[in-house]
Amino acid sequence: MKAEIITIGDELLIGQVVNTNQAYIAEKFTEIGISVERMVTVSDDLDPILDAFREAWNRVDVVAVTGGLGPTHDDITKKAVCQFFGTSLVSRQEVRENIERLLQARNLPWSPASEEQTMFPASATVMLNRLGSAAGILFEKEGKYLIALPGVPYEMTAIVSEEFIPWLTKRLHGPVLRQVTLRTTGISESKLSGLLGDLDALLQGARLAFLPSPAGVRLRATVLDTDAIVAEERLKAVESRIREKAARYIFGSSTNQLEEIVGNLLTEKGLTISVAESCTGGLIADYLTDVSGSSGYFDRSVVAYSNKSKAELLGVPAELIAAYGAVSREVAEAMARGIRAASGTSIGLSTTGIAGPTGAAAEKPVGLVWIGYADEHLSLAVKLNLGNDRRRVKERAATAALDLVRRKLMKIE
Amino acid sequence: MKAEIITIGDELLIGQVVNTNQAYIAEKFTEIGISVERMVTVSDDLDPILDAFREAWNRVDVVAVTGGLGPTHDDITKKAVCQFFGTSLVSRQEVRENIERLLQARNLPWSPASEEQTMFPASATVMLNRLGSAAGILFEKEGKYLIALPGVPYEMTAIVSEEFIPWLTKRLHGPVLRQVTLRTTGISESKLSGLLGDLDALLQGARLAFLPSPAGVRLRATVLDTDAIVAEERLKAVESRIREKAARYIFGSSTNQLEEIVGNLLTEKGLTISVAESCTGGLIADYLTDVSGSSGYFDRSVVAYSNKSKAELLGVPAELIAAYGAVSREVAEAMARGIRAASGTSIGLSTTGIAGPTGAAAEKPVGLVWIGYADEHLSLAVKLNLGNDRRRVKERAATAALDLVRRKLMKIE
To answer: Which of A257, A268, A363, B38 has its CA 20 to 30 A from that of A141?
Structure first.
């Protein structure tokens, strides 16, 4: 099956916004074996939108459109799809109920704009938007599909992953495709490639993509086969060969987040954790508390940015900081022990480093980070060099700290 | 002058790479008043590339093409431009000299691949690539232009900014474009639209785009005029009319982040801040510490997830929590006062709420958040309902908390 992705929005044509939506949809289509042939971006004007619809509809089987579904005057995708498919807007009960639910949750009243948003093309299927008022609009005609999605990324991704991809997968034909994504951290793309060795022997006809992100490299293995059971068996074999080579770095599969893995391990073992953060500035706590139920094992985090707060909250002696500097093995360990003692948790975790761009010294460059760890048996600290971009340093340090806990809990050295 | 941007590359169509190149070129074109009408991405195959060339060449005055100029087998842009413009490749001295210089600088020998890279379309102009071997290829025909650029971002941006934009600016005619972006928070797109009222009266010929994000809605006003000074005056008038209507919600312009604005206000006034976070789980500290230099005004954040930690770290009495619940006006205020007292900062800020999906009660639904604020004169708490997605609740609560500080510091009620 072939697809085209059409993105609507003046903000893209003036370069103010980078088009992450089309990349997201392309990745999701590719994962289920749909080939994206072309991506097009046009302005918030009717004629270019209709031109793009016409061209795409003639060329491919699936057309995904994003943008232009909000309540403001520049949002004209609804008008365009109605004109293109010869239908008109009617008020739809399922859309109304969703909007009522959203407004209630935020304690907001019904408004004329809400009423406007219940209007939906008569001949289209509603793809529910759990997070916003603009539902996805799905047309099905002569074995082809066109879906119009809101441009707000988190709403678009929710509709695509939770509604549209499952719906579309049932309508696919041809060889079956099976995929697994293994999430790694703490190793670069090129080192990981070296570790895996001879790819032909490893993959035996499967495909492997290296997908880098600040949290680590994802490995996506894909098998195509005419037989579903054979495809699954081949995929399992590839996965186990990859895991054999890179076990230390693989923390989970698919959409597992590292903080969920760590949370599950803590819960299983009946352990609790507290965190003392300097250079990560609250990001470890932010990651941990993104997991619902984290209050069961996460007690507290202290973002001790000043030396004074390191002394007051964590009992790190001023003399220790004076002797070794705030960014040192000694202070990282003392912070981890200090937060563990203060909170009475099983594990204490800490970070101290130089996120940059300022604060570097000859011996201590931007990107230098110490991660401290303490439990009832031991305390230790690990030194990392994490580059020179402030946000990346924070993200990499927070990920490395959580991965250190994972490896300790799993007894992986 | 109108333009189209064509990006060539399979890695984009499978969603592996986000297309930052087209956004960069679009921004540069917009800055000099060239209107980008369409962006297209196609695969590394000759037919789709030639189709895209034909369509764009018929529609616009300037066609920018990126990708497919490297030395590997899938790079076929040179072949495509030669076929499209009816010319052939010849070895060009200026390209040869540039490659020689690059190889010498890296101490590398001349190779057959280097020889191949000196081949350049006979009828095209060389746009020098200071950083790589693939020069930009510029065609000029019947008052229209097509430029083919390498896909490596830093090479592409160097050619565009140093060579092509200066070259093109000399050939421009037509109206100039001026823009401003105002960042708002704490108000939905539809309410903001209502607040601005009659858009025709407000804009008087300018265009306005509403760009929503979790942190708030950005408003982008655009003016086109034949005269640059008139365009700037008209834009200023539009901006001041928008500010008049929505002053309370506008925290900055362009790419200003709320945490930078708050940081600047604290620095100007010589004030310091500490934070006690429950439902935001460290996100306020994470935002604040994304700003380099935040150690000058940010002392600490305590993520007090457990009731025990609220008592120990913030001095919130267990009786207060028992009487009103952890998510209450009373506890939010006590947390803000508590962190301020413990840290000795000018301002104490706090959050307590139900991020969900679990933890709700009849009177306290998911999304209920109290923000507490304390300074030397007063303490208060504000109640918000922020929807039912855990991550969004955290982001909205953290943004609302920072915006409360901004409004207090600016004395906006």
So the answer is: B38
Closest CB from B15, B19, B20 relative to A27: B15
**Contact (CB<8Å) B23/A12:** yes
| A130 within 8 A of A158, measured Cβ to Cβ | yes
pLDDT, tens digit, for every residue of B287-309?
Answer: 999 998 898 999 999 999 888 88
Contacting residues of A for B354, CB less than 8 Å apart: none
Please give the interface size between A and B, counted as residue pairs whose CB atoms are below 8 Å apart: 274
pLDDT tens-digit profile of B186-204? 998 889 999 999 999 999 9
Task: Measure the CA dihedral A358/A360/A362/A368, to 10°.
Answer: -140
Give the span between the Cα atoms of B62 and B351, in whole angstroms.
52
Neighbours of A321 (CB within 10 A): 19
Q: Domains of chain B, with CATH numbers?
A: 2-169 (3.40.980.10), 176-253 (3.30.70.2860), 258-409 (3.90.950.20)
pLDDT of res. B73: 47
Contact B14 A26 (CB under 8 A): yes
Distances (CA, A) of B227 to B170, B200, B221: 17, 21, 17
Integer Cα distance of A303 and B370 in angstroms: 21
Q: Which residues touch B411 (CB under 8 Å, ≥6 apart)? A: none
**What ipTM was predicted for this assembly?**
0.73
Answer yes or no: do B290 and A284 touch at CB < 8 A. Answer: no
Write the residue in B220, B304, B389 that is nearest to A11 by C-beta. Answer: B220
| pTM to 2 decimal places | 0.75
Residue A401 has pLDDT above 50, yes or no: yes
Single-letter amino acid code for the residue at B90: V
Token digits for A57? 């509809």
The residue count of chain B comes to 413
Please tell me whether residue A35 adopts helix, strand or coil conformation. strand
Residues of B in contact with A15 (CB under 8 A): 22-30, 36
